[in-house]
Design a protein that fits this description.
431 residues, mainly alpha, three-stranded antiparallel beta sheet, globular
Amino acid sequence: MFPAVLAHGVGGRGDLPIPEWQAAGGAAVALVLSFAALGLLWHRPRLRSMSAGRRMPPSTEGGIGLLARVLRVVALLVFMMVLAAGLGGAAGTTMNISPVSVYVIFWVGVPVASVLLGPVWRAISPWETLGRMAGGSPSGQAPNWLTSGWAALVPISIFHWLELAYHDGASPRVIGWLGLAYTLGLMAMSRRWGWEEARKAEGFGVLFDALASLSPFRRDGSGGLFVRSPFVGVAEVAASPALLSVLLAALGGTAFDGISRTSVWSDLMAGRAGWEATAVSTVALIWVVVLVGLVYHLACMAGGRITGDPDFAVRFGISLVPILVGYDLAHYFSLLVLEGQAFIALVSDPLGRGWDLFGTVDYATNWTFISTTAVGWVQLGSIMVGHMVAVLVSHDRAVEKWSPVVALRSQYPMLGVMVAYTVFALVLITG
């Protein structure tokens, strides 16, 4: 009935609207020109003040609050359905709702919604709901591995391995049991140390909150809703070594996904299956993540020598947020709008039992919903815009700390990384 939803399935490869060399060259020139313009015109920090925004009328806030409560209940019900489907539904990936729900709706759809609408995952996450319900009176101080934020790297890393390297990552049973284990682990931490501490181990929430900083909407501590210019909120993200590691891991995983779609990788994996394929993919995934992180840190070491700042890499880690969003849109946009349509039919028969709960079980995926040319422009535009915003964010943070001359010099190595990342991403898109 539906195409198999592969764990690392990505559609719309090799369909850039202009030749690859033109796209890469044009993007590199655009970055250099943007950098030069910032050096000439942007001499003081502006993004942090712009991120405050303008408050919306209280009546609007009340309506949005009610909608959030409704969506929180819906999200919890969908989560329970997906978990039940993974544990006890049909074993096949095409008849079970869990693979498309996890790898398309959750992993791709929630980040897109976060960038457009703000911290939606914080508002509707079933783990937030369950964690607050399970949270008891904290018994003792939470351990450093939790309070430091490094625990958030674990679920992101495991998910990437499951999605990109494990040979049976789309299996509903694998998804179901790992989802249950993750949920129980979070609830145990919430019960022991309270949800405010346990949330630091909810890696998806940490990642999605960082992406939501690019949204034109934000909420303050009292629940007030504010509208602001897009992208500027990333200036307020608190930099930390743990968050930097999460961003680099996510960026490296997306880069490996692109490599795994090339003809070179296909030739390497020819004839490999099962655990042999998993072993090779695991080594390659680790290698790509390390390489992406190494390139970034080498540039930051050069910037640190120019400025004398030992925390240069952490300070500018937030510049990776728009790059990651650009990469994700380029790689997964067509997956969301095309294969994501399978959710419409599967929601009527989530366990693959022959039901038709909402009358949508016969819904057929419209593969012409968006043209390959449109997908190509989205791929090209998202990568270019993501890197240009990253250059802006990085420069703004530099002039926040140093004089314009020193700030500009410190960004030369970062510009080199941005150009390299851009060209690399565009080459991967063409397969």
